[in-house]
Write a structure and sequence with these properties.
The structure holds two protein chains of two kinds. Chain A is mostly helical. Chain A contains 13 helices and two strands, in the order H-H-H-H-E-E-H-H-H-H-H-H-H-H-H. Chain A has a two-stranded antiparallel ribbon. In chain A, strand 1 and strand 2 form a beta hairpin. In chain B, a hairpin with a 2-residue loop joins strand 2 and strand 3. Chain B is globular and about 60 Å long. The model of chain B has no long low-confidence stretch (mean pLDDT 88). Classes of the chains: A mainly alpha, B mainly alpha. Chains A and B meet through helix 4, helix 10 and helix 13 of A and helix 6, helix 10, helix 12 and helix 14 of B.
Chain lengths: 298, 351
């Protein structure tokens, strides 16, 4: 163990965790409103990053403009996905929706290869590339700014859910579909909106990540790390997504970074720590920190 | 089984339980088995290779069907349990054990590992259990990649000597066809009969309503664990055969993607039926083969498309096929086949 580096790994973990929590937010949004767990979130993220790349590289637009347009495109993709793939499955058992999002992930993967090509691309830098030094801790400035942007996104969503009509409607639908419908809310439209917003959030994550590691098909794999985050935070909870994401980021960074013994380091424990953490969470507290406990009656 | 053949009456208890019900069906079954095992003497190596792959998939999918179709537990870890089987077979063969002995042992080892990852089903079910098996899918290939690389070969993996039986060396598609198809036949018969026993009926009761099943005196946890064991056992057998088929195994051959494909095969074939896994595995593998053949033609027709067309067509056809099945035929090909059979038996009347 090398405790001198503890603050460094803690800070890095928190910053990566910020990205995980943004991915987790997308998952929570969809689960909360439609009880669908979106295994394709990572692929939406990847497609969003590629779309931004396409606009900025092929059409030569400014990268921020490309980002903005890609957000619009991804909202449309989200609406389309909900209408075509998920709407016919309303009322079907959970397995059908799980399989549908997995099938969707495959389709998006294939479509991305056909449209954008299976190459690694790079985005023009959104943020200046230089280290940010705080005392002993050295951070990547672009990662820190991505974290700040992710947290800003959270604040926006908290306000959205608390004060806007659309946000309140989504919370009502999450509470009870039939009650929401009986007070005149269109539940299918709310599902569509949830998917559109989740897809937008995914694109934001995708671009933030692409800024650090480049645009590539493997971006979708990062979303797998958000699954433990969502389960730890609770599937229905927006604050849970933040807490879970940060926790998973810190665990991954500390477990991967702290051990100094080369035999231990060769195991790449950091890769697996989030999933072992997920098993522990499932074993002791399957509903997560802020999730709803379900009581069943015959 | 609602519709019996004309003139087919249950005159004894044995006949009531029979799967093959009259001489015509016996004839067809025997003819099919003879045809199945005579095939490598006529067909070319490529067709046999595809059939071998289908056979291995069928075994893995039958196992998944026991867990998903009969017990109603979602597992995203079938490929990982296959990895356990494949690695145990490779390690045992390396240690000098005969492959024919290693095959059942690796099935058992995979079954025990499956039992371990089935433990969370004590408290959780449905989607949460899917997440627990997802972590199995992440942890097991990581284990083979990073732990004890002197035994498991790490990233490059292990190479297995082809098994022998006397003078015969099983190193070509045609020779490997026999052990694979023999295992498939045994597995299909076993699965069909498991579904009809007390255990199978208990599993179906748990799927339909777990609390009601518990009230009826079915110990939920132990039955779920048995389903996990059986499912992983089948996966282990499939994995050991895969080690023989692929010769070299490495952790990347058993990714989450493969598990998703096996789930897709269960859905396409039809959950909770004996025929489903066979139809599903065959359909998806044939579809894959068609896209492999089609990709060069398409890339000639549309040269402006990127080079990764082959890599793209596989996932996209699988994804779209699966989506269409989920929306339009959620009960799978096996259900459609039942409908066709019923219509044929009722002919010329519609109902």
């Amino acid at each position: 163990m090398n405790w001198d580096l503890f603050p460094q790994f803690l800070a890095t973990g928190l910053l990566t965790g910020g990205i995980y929590s943004l991915i987790a937010l997308g998952l929570v949004l969809i689960y909360k409103s439609s009880r669908v767990f979106n295994f394709a979130q990572g692929h939406l993220l990847m497609v969003g990053a590629f779309t931004t790349w396409w606009f900025s590289e092929n059409l030569g637009w400014n990268v921020w403009l490309a980002f903005a347009v890609a957000i619009g495109v991804s909202a449309l993709i989200g609406l389309l996905v909900e209408r075509v793939a998920l709407r016919p499955l309303i009322g079907q058992p959970i397995l059908a929706t799980v399989m549908m999002t997995l099938a969707l992930a495959q389709t998006l993967q294939g479509a991305a290869i056909i449209v954008f090509g299976a190459y690694q691309r790079s985005l023009p830098a959104l943020f200046p590339i230089q280290p940010l030094v705080l005392g002993d801790v050295r951070l990547k400035l672009n990662l820190a700014l991505a974290f700040a942007l992710a947290m800003l996104g959270f604040v926006v969503f908290v306000f959205f859910f608390r004060f806007t009509r659309a946000g309140l409607a989504m919370r009502a639908a999450a509470e009870d579909h039939q009650l929401a419908q009986s007070v005149g809310l269109s539940v299918p439209r709310i599902f569509g909106m949830a998917w559109a917003i989740a897809s937008v959030v995914a694109t934001m994550c995708g671009v933030l990540l692409a800024n650090i590691s480049g645009v590539e098909l493997n971006l979708s794999i990062i979303a797998l790390k958000a699954f433990p985050a969502v389960l730890f935070g609770g599937l229905e909870s927006v604050p849970g997504a933040i807490v879970g994401g940060l926790t998973v980021g810190v665990i991954e960074s500390l477990v991967g970074g702290l051990p100094q013994d080369p035999a231990l380091r060769a195991l790449h424990l950091g890769d697996i720590a989030p999933y072992i953490f997920m098993l522990i969470v499932l074993w002791f507290r399957p509903d997560g920190l802020f999730g709803l406990k379900r009581i069943e009656r015959i | 089984m609602a519709l019996r053949l004309a003139g087919d009456f249950d005159t004894s208890y044995a006949h009531d339980m029979a799967i093959i019900r009259n001489r015509g069906q016996w004839g067809m079954t025997i003819a099919f088995l003879i045809g199945l095992f005579a095939l490598p003497f006529f067909a070319d190596g490529h067709v046999i290779g595809t059939l071998n792959l289908i056979g291995i998939s069928i075994i893995a999918v039958i196992g998944l069907n026991i867990l998903l179709g009969y017990t109603g537990q979602i597992s995203l870890g079938q490929a990982a349990f296959m990895a356990v089987g494949a690695y145990s077979a490779a390690v045992l063969v390396k240690a000098g054990v005969s492959f024919w002995l290693a095959l059942p042992i690796s099935g058992l080892v995979a079954g025990l590992v499956g039992l371990l990852f089935g433990l969370p089903s004590l408290r959780i079910k449905g989607f949460y259990l899917a997440m627990a098996t997802l972590s199995a899918q992440m942890i097991i290939p990581w284990f083979f990649r990073n732990v004890r690389t002197d035994i498991f070969g790490g990233m490059p993996g292990l190479t297995m000597q082809p098994p022998r039986l006397g003078e015969i060396v099983f190193n070509s598609q045609a020779t490997m066809y026999f052990p694979i198809m023999l295992t498939v036949v045994v597995c299909v018969i076993a699965a069909k009969n498991i579904a009809r026993t007390r255990l199978g009926r208990a599993l179906i009761a748990i799927r339909d309503n777990d609390l009601a099943a518990e009230v009826l005196g079915i110990a939920q946890f132990s039955h779920k664990l048995r389903a996990f064991f059986l499912s992983a056992l089948y996966a282990g057998l499939a994995g050991a055969l895969w080690a023989m088929y692929a010769r070299t195994i490495n952790p990347d051959q058993f990714s989450l993607l493969n598990s998703v494909w096996y789930l897709g095969m269960v859905i396409v074939g039809g959950m909770g039926s004996a025929l489903g896994p066979i139809l599903g595995a065959a359909f998806v593998r044939v579809l894959e083969e068609v896209t492999v053949q089609l990709a060069p033609v398409l890339s000639k027709l549309f040269p402006q498309l990127e080079a990764g067309l082959l890599a793209a067509l596989g996932p996209i056809t699988f994804g779209i096929a699966l989506m269409l099945f989920l929306v339009f035929e959620p009960r799978g090909l096996a259900h459609r086949w039942e409908l066709i059979k019923a219509a044929w038996r009722l002919r010329p009347f519609a109902h």
